[in-house]
Amino acid sequence: MKKKEMIFILGFLVLAGILWIGMSFARSGSHQTIRITVDGEEYGTYSLSKDQVIRINDTNVCEIKDGKVRMTEANCPDQLCIHQRAIDEGGGTIICLPNRIVIEGEKGGDVQYDDSDDGLKIDAVT
User: Fold this and answer.
1) What CATH number should be reported for the domain holding residue 102?
2) Could you state, in chain order, the average pLDDT of each consecutive group of 10 residues for the chain (126 residues)?
3) What span, in angstroms and rounded, lies between the C-alpha atoms of 43 and 100?
4) Sign (positive/negative) of CA torsion 95, 119, 109, 53?
5) How many domains would you assign to the chain?
6) Other residues' Cβ atoms within 10 Å of the Cβ of residue 78
7) What residue numbers bound the domain in which 61 lies?
8) Residue 42 lies in a domain
């Protein structure tokens, strides 16, 4: 290999390493809570630090255990929501389409304004 080729390859590897480190810092925000919505309406917000079983209407049951949440029961015919990956502090989403239920990780540091502030809600985009 020529000297210019080695410099190019080394420069490319350094740039890739810098980008990889930057992306890992961008994703480093942890999700301490989950938000459950049913048919687009907020059902509740729950902490991942407290182990509990949550009954969602009469259709689904999810369980928070050891900092992870997973759907344990559902009356939908396909049962896809039960087989989805558990949500942990890294984030994620569980969706039960027939019952219109969405469980998603939320960052604990997000800022939200209630309806008394002109109905504006500000949520960080990740």
Assistant:
1) 2.60.320.10
2) 88 90 64 88 90 92 92 91 88 90 75 41 52
3) 12
4) negative
5) 1
6) 11
7) 31-107
8) yes
